[in-house]
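QA checklist item 7 of 12: single-chain prediction sanity check.
[x] sequence parsed
[x] length recorded as 103
[x] structure emitted
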Amino acid sequence: MAQIPRDGGVITLRPARRKWILVGLACLGFTAIAVALLPSEPDRLDAVGLAFGAAFFGLGALISAWQLVPGAAYLRIGPDGLVVKSLSAARRKFRGVLRDARP
């Protein structure tokens, strides 16, 4: 857990690498299972479900890989408020949260 600086500094929290590696491996496993179970006849209804599952878990694997890129996701807590960055270049600042929370 991050220590709160007494001098009003900035705390940066990053995603847990171990958790996102496990999520990525699980998604890759489910994607591989769905692809392996795809029938040779694309007309069957279960083929649509398996293709959807492969696409869904494949997207999950890509998102988990993106979380492992340094600087791609973080929560920065500082005197000017909260800065959140996740899966996009957009950053949102929440001002006044820390100002109102101080005794």
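[x] summary fact logged: The chain has a mean pLDDT of 81.
[ ] second reviewer sign-off
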